[in-house]
């Protein structure tokens, strides 16, 4: 009887993990291809990103309100001083990362975007060293060389290479390194109470919107105001279809953040890291099959080299985490499927290694 119960528990955990991974894949891969598809007909990626931010803020606010009503406990609300001083740098970096990433879809293929964006791990490592979140080790140098070498091989003599698009997504990866380093520092400040991603998204979105607005005003404002698809629309049906498409993208963006959180909270950041590696492979295969992206043998070798660097880093972080007490789900979030437990703030005292792994995994998204 005991053996049977253990087998059932193992199968249930495996099925649950697989379901969460598939949910994460649906949102992560889905929003990549959806944004690429949308930018083919809607050439305002910064406006698209700003609408996504508004949708994420709306759903975050609704989630907080539902939990507050059901639990009768107030959610964290930062003072203006802490908000502008502590959250603003992270929000600006996040806005630029997301905005430049979506902007690059106007010029490059999904495969080149996926490969270049995976190099964010490289910049996260660099900024982690600068901010002394990591110690310089020979293995970290090897990881950086593998990822950088793989990126060079993937883009070398690529038939679908575009300098402007590559520069945009590489800039997004660079800023992404700053973004996730600042995010880690922000969430590890226990006194702010932003360990919960829902609370973090709620506080970040308004400043992200304001941070992205100047870029939108300069590069898209005039064109958008004279475009028939938005402000000078003549077909109400077309306008509703465009707004509906943008709103759907915002739902996918919110779902991505929430599915990542669910996967980490119910399993571990190691699961997210490994799932992220296989997700990159799936994305490239789908891009080659569905969109006809041309990927040469040299490009595949470069991608394999980059993934080997990411895999090595994941393995090293896992060994380090096990040496410090083991890789585990975030404390307080894996014992019950209740929504309040999934959304509540977890205590950070013993979760430094887990959080570091989580943010490294985020750099691959």
TrEMBL record:
Residue spans of biased composition, Acidic residues class: 348-358
The Sugar phosphate transporter domain, residue ranges: 19-312
A GO cellular component entry from the record: membrane
Top-level taxonomic group: Eukaryota
Transmembrane residue ranges: 12-34, 46-67, 112-131, 138-156, 168-187, 207-226, 238-258, 297-316
Annotated localization: Membrane
Region (Disordered): 344-365
Record function comment: Putative transporter.
Protein name: Solute carrier family 35 member C2
The gene coding this protein: SLC35C2
